[in-house]
Amino acid sequence: MATAAPTREGRTLRLLVWIAFVIVVVTAFGYVLIIRAQETYPPEAFMVPFVAAYLALMAALLGVSLRPGRLALRLRPALRGGAAAGLLAMGVLALMSIGILLVVAGGLAAAAAVMTLVGRH
Fold this sequence. Notes:
Helix content is 75%, strand content 0%. The chain is mostly helical. It has one domain (12-118). The protein is elongated, with a radius of gyration of 16 Å.
């Protein structure tokens, strides 16, 4: 017997996603500000915009997963899982600078994705 998926999420699950979202946004802004304060022209000219855009994309995935609606409800596990994978990958690559915050945010997003899939919210 199939049961209908709940349309509302628990408070804890939404809080996990919000915390991950805030960590990513603050890290992106902090990264850009720190790089701008160090040099006027960094040696890798396209690295800073790429990292900032990548983090903005991960934050957008988490933000869209919080929206209500039937389409967002269906895509929540994929959006959160994609953000978790992207944040964990970038966090491991940048472990010596901003990576630890991204690993934490990726872990929170992964937990939210698993909780969404399992339905324990």
